[in-house]
Structure formats: C-alpha cells, structure tokens
Amino acid sequence: MKYKRNLSKPIAGVCLLVIFCLVLLPLTLVSIFPKDEELGQTPVKKGTIPIPENINVYRHVSGKTESIPFEDYVKGVVAGEMPADFELEALKAQAVAARTYSLSKIIRSGSGGNPDHPSAPVCDDTHCQVYRSPEELAEIKSAEWMATGWPKIQKAVDSTKGQLMYYQGTLVEQPLFHSSSGGKTENSEDVFVSALPYLRSVDSPYEAAAPHQHEQIEIPLSEFSQKLKQAYPKKNLGTVNRDTVKVLERSSGGRVALLQAGNLTVKGREIRDLFGLRSANFSVSVQGNSVLFTTEGYGHGVGMSQWGANGMAQAGYKYTDILTHYYTGVEVY
Length: 333
Description:
By secondary structure, the chain is of the alpha+beta class. It has helices at about 10-30, 70-80, 90-110, 135-140, 145-160, 220-230, 270-275, 305-315, 320-325, and strands spanning about 55-60, 65-70, 120-125, 165, 170, 175-180, 215-220, 245-250, 255-260, 265, 280-285, 290-295, 305, 330.
C-alpha cells in the first residue's frame, strides 16, 4: 500500500498567501501611506509638464540676471503679489497661478528671454510678476511678518509644489490676476487683444472686504479737456460739458468699453490710463466745473480677483475651487 500525501493543508496555505498578497497587502499599504487628497494635494496626471530646477530672473535694481530655484522664486512672487494675512487657500491659489505663469514664460521664451529683458523669461516687477527675495523681505517687512507671514507663504507654496493649471490638457499660458474686480471679472478680449477660453467674465461675489470700492476722483473740467487734447492731438475735441461726457458702452464685466468726451469716442481702458483711475469699472459725470469719476475695484479685471479669492477661502472654498471658478474650464494637477 502506497503512502498518500495529504495535500489539502498545503494548498489551503498557498491560497491564503495568495489572498493576502492580492487583497490584504494592498489594503494594508493604503492604510499606512496617506492618499494625495489627505496631504491636501491633487494627484499628478500623465502629461504633466516637469518643473525646471531653476529659473532666470532679471533684477531691475541691479540690472543683472539671477538663477533662482524655481519653487523659491514662486514663494517670492506670492510674497510680492498677495498679503500674507490672506487665507491659506487663497495663498495656495496664488502659488499655482504664479507657478503656471512662470513656466509658461519659460516655454514661450525658448532658449532666449523676453524682448524687454532678453537674458531672462521673467523679471521681478509688475511687467511680469513682483518677486522679493527673503533678504529683501527681511528689509521691508517687520520681524513679526518674517516669523509668521513668511512661513505661511512657504507652506502655501510647498503644499502645492509642482501643481499647474491646464486647459484641455495644455498648460495655461495667461493665468492673469488682479487685486479686485468690483463684483465681476472681464473677458480677456475686452481688455487685451486675445480671446482666451479660460479668461471668461465670471461673478466675483466675495469682495465685500476689498478696498478701492466707490472711490471718487474729481478732476477740473479744464484739466480733463487739456489731457484729452494732448492725448489725441489730431482729433477735434469739441465742447466738453455735462451733455457730451457719458458712457456709451460697457463690457460683459461692467467696465466702460467706450466713453464719449466732446466729439471723441475713447476706450474705457485708455481713460483709465490717462487719468490714473483704479480700474475701467467707473461711472462719470460733469458737476459744475469738474468731472467726477467713481471707480469700483482695482486692476484690469481679467482672471483671478485676489480679494475675491480670499473671500472665497473665508467662505470655505479650497484653492482648486477658487482657481476653477476664476479660470473657466481649467484643471489643476
């Protein structure tokens, strides 16, 4: 009689091992390692454009170009462009917008730079984005700000490290932003040249705390007329009075598209530049011997309203909510 091996127990053991490897082990690893969402970060998708290690920045004061670690540069931009006492989610939104803008400038510059600073794709002032180094911040900010505000900005940038905005899989080239919109942002073509699908006019309802609301500027009628004559010397200004100064057309975002002044028809943004108004979102009237402008908001009004972003953050919205609200149709990853 031959000896028969009992194979039932070994088979059961193998089955248990296979079940553990295929089912239990992955579940165990998931419980050990936190998900991207738990870290507050959006999962990275395929097709993401890699972030360079450094970025060349033209410094206006020194007249020199510096090579700065890319993420350190983003921190300096957030510090230069948004108050550190804003909500963390608003600072995160600013970080992603600044990072996206910077990388798009590098890509568009190719092996060169910007025509205004050929040695670098970006500079350190409002021509591109305001950048301040930690050393500069230590000089212009208080010790308390460096102890509380700077770490907060660092946290906002670090927690969104590498994240960019994409529209239909393509990097967003113009993630523009401004201080406050006065309640509604602008279509890009109503302010600049190009119509971009992600720069559409949207409501910006959380700007109650924003400054520069209902600001009034009074200009003597004689000065108003003189500046128009100097700006448009080849045109006949005609008579400027309460009947010939009026808004003819407004944009989708409520800004003045066309203004009549005497015999002239002038674009609202040209009037803004000529008279140093906070925005082209204004009303105008002639009162006695003066022209009275009342402006709403501050800036060109295209893209993200920074004060609107902070208001959204205070209302409980996350930075991805803020970005996808102000930049129509984008994804963040």
